[in-house]
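Lab notebook: predicted structure, single chain.

Context: the supervisor wants predicted structures on file for every construct in the current expression panel, including those that have not yet been purified. This is the next one on the list. No modifications to the sequence; it matches the entry in the shared construct table.
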Amino acid sequence: MIQAIFRRAEATVDHAVGSLLARVLVAIPFLVAAGFATAAGAYYITSAYGPQAGNLVMAVTFAVIGLIVWAIVASRPAPSLLEDAHDATIKDEARKAAQPADPVLAQADREMMMAALTSLGPLALPTIGRLVAKNLPLIAAIGAAAFILTQPGEDGGAPTVDPAE
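Prediction complete. Output recorded below exactly as produced.
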């Protein structure tokens, strides 16, 4: 009986992690596309209206987008504190009723949870490894840039730049 529950929990966790990784992998190209669209829009507006007005237009555009998102999030009804307290009381009572009287069963539950959590690694690790392997030159370049930027100047202090004459 416990083995069947364990298999079911493991399958549920595997499915949840797999679908989450798939959603993240689908979202990444859209985020990159949004970045390029923003850069293209900023270039177009800056070339059409000049650098100051173009940057101001981009700032106002993002402020308006932020206000729209804020209005959407704020329009969702927030649960009241009384409802939260009532829900917490119900959950506490249900948890107390569901607690087994046998401590061996409680140990089995802990072991089942640990097994479910350790099943996440084998599913996510190959995908993460492939992503790191594909992007290794980019990761190395970022690491080298970070190393160079954090090095002190020749005199041991902060790097200095000679002013142009």
